[in-house]
Amino acid sequence: MTDHSHSCTNHTALYQSTHQDLSEMDFERGILGASTRGDIDRVRKLLNKHVNVNVPDSYGYTALHYAARNNHEDVCKVLLEAGADSFAKTKNDGATPAHRAAYAGHLGILKLLVGKGGAPLLESRDNCGRNCLHHAYRGKQKNIIDWLLESYPNLSSTRDNNGVLPDFVGQSANEMHCHELNV
C-alpha cells in the first residue's frame, strides 16, 4: 500500500511506528480504509456525504477492490448500490475487484459482482491477459474454480498473454510475472 519507511534518522523505531503521513491518514479515515476494515457504518456515512465511491488510491485500488479482497460482502453490496465500478482496474496489473475476490476465494462476493457485471466481468482480463479463472487457479481456490468451471466453462479455454490456460497458472514454472515472460 504505502511505504512506511522514513528518511529521518533521529527517530527510533518505537516512534516511527506511530508516525503517519497525510496520505495514510486520509486512507484510514476515508472510504478506502473503511472498506478495508469492513466498517459498513463508516462507509454509509461517507457515501451519505457524497464521497466518490470510485475514488482510487495511488495504485488504482478502489473501495470495492478492498472490500472484495477482504471478504466484506455487506460493504460490497452498499458500494455497488452507490454506483461502484465493478470493472475498475488497478494501475500496475489491471486487476478488477472480481479478480481479487477470485484469487482470495470469496465466492459470495464473486457471485455478487457477477450479479451486477454479468459474465463479461468474469471474462475481463488483467494486464497479463488473465481472467477470473486464472486468478482462482493462481490462488488455489477450489471453491471458485469449481463454480466457474460449472457455471462458465468457456473461461477454461482462455489463454493469457503468454498462451497459458487457467489450469496451468500457479504451477511453479509459470509463476513468473507475465511481463518477465514477454520480454
UniProtKB/TrEMBL annotation:
Keywords: ANK repeat, Repeat
Keyword Transferase: no
Keyword Transit peptide included in the entry's annotation: no
Gene3D superfamilies for this protein: Ankyrin repeat-containing domain
Organism of provenance: Schistosoma rodhaini
Name of this protein: Uncharacterized protein
Pfam families per record: Ank_2 (PF12796)
PROSITE patterns (UniProt xref): ANK_REP_REGION, ANK_REPEAT
InterPro entries: Ankyrin_rpt (IPR002110), Ankyrin_rpt-contain_sf (IPR036770)
Repeat (ANK) residue spans along the chain: 59-91, 93-125
